[in-house]
Design goal:
Layout (H helix, E strand, L loop, with lengths): L7 H8 L9 E7 L4 H14 L3 E5 L7 H8 L7 E5 L1 H7 L5 E5 L6 E2 L8 E6 L8 H4 L4 E4 L11 H16 L1 H4 L2
Parallel strand pairs: 1-2, 1-6, 2-3, 4-6, 4-7, 5-7
Helix pairs in contact: 2-3, 2-6
C-alpha cells in the first residue's frame, strides 16, 4: 500500500475522472440566511455533490460577495447561485420536483427514515428562526435530523450538508459506494 499523501483534488480526479450522468436531480435552497459564510458553504456543498443550482430566498439582502467567494472557493465556477424572493422561488420550481423543508416542525419526519424523491429541492431555514410556518406549509414535506446529543441545534450549512448527502445516499447509491 502506498502511504503517500495525496491532496483531495488529486484524489477525486483520480477516483472519479468523469462525472457519471444520473436521473436524480437536487437543488439546494435556503431561507433568509444572514451569514455570508453559510451561503459560501452551501455553494461549496453544491459543488461537492454536482448540484448545479442554489437558490437563496431573501427579500432584502446585501451580499458580501468576498466572504461568499472565500468559502465557496472554486465551486463558484460551476454552481449557479442566485438570490430570489419567495414569489420567484415558488414560480421557479421545475415540474416534477418536490420541495422538502429541513425544519423541526410538528409534521417533520426523521430524514434517515424518510424516502427522499429523485427530484428534490432541499431547503434550510434562517440561522436563528428557521422558516415561517406559512412557507413550510407550501412545501411538499419537511424532515428533521435527529440529534442524540445534548446540543439540540445545528449550523444550517452543516444540517443542509447532512440532508444533501442523505439524499445522495438514497438516490445516487452507485456513486457513493465506489
Amino acid at each position: 500500500m502506498n502511504d503517500q499523501y495525496i491532496n483531495a483534488v488529486d484524489f477525486f480526479k483520480e477516483k472519479f475522472p468523469t462525472r457519471p450522468q444520473h436521473p436524480a436531480q437536487l437543488i439546494l435552497a435556503a431561507w433568509e440566511l444572514r451569514t455570508p459564510e453559510n451561503l459560501g458553504a452551501i455553494v461549496r456543498l453544491a459543488g461537492n455533490l454536482g448540484v448545479a443550482q442554489v437558490w437563496f430566498i431573501h427579500q432584502n439582502f446585501q451580499l458580501n460577495l468576498q466572504k461568499i467567494k472565500y468559502v465557496a472557493h472554486t465551486s463558484l465556477s460551476h454552481v449557479d447561485f442566485k438570490m430570489v424572493t419567495e414569489q420567484q422561488f415558488l414560480a421557479m420550481i421545475p415540474p416534477g420536483y418536490q420541495t422538502i423543508a429541513l425544519e423541526t416542525s410538528s409534521l417533520s419526519t426523521n430524514i434517515f427514515t424518510t424516502k427522499l424523491p429523485q427530484k428534490t429541492i432541499l431547503i434550510c431555514g434562517n440561522e436563528r428562526h428557521g422558516m415561517p410556518e406559512s412557507f413550510i406549509n407550501q412545501c411538499h414535506s419537511s424532515v428533521f435530523i435527529p440529534l442524540p446529543g445534548l446540543t439540540r441545534s445545528m449550523n444550517v450549512s452543516h444540517a443542509l450538508t447532512i440532508a444533501a448527502f442523505e439524499w445522495a445516499k438514497q438516490n445516487l447509491p452507485a456513486l457513493l459506494t465506489e
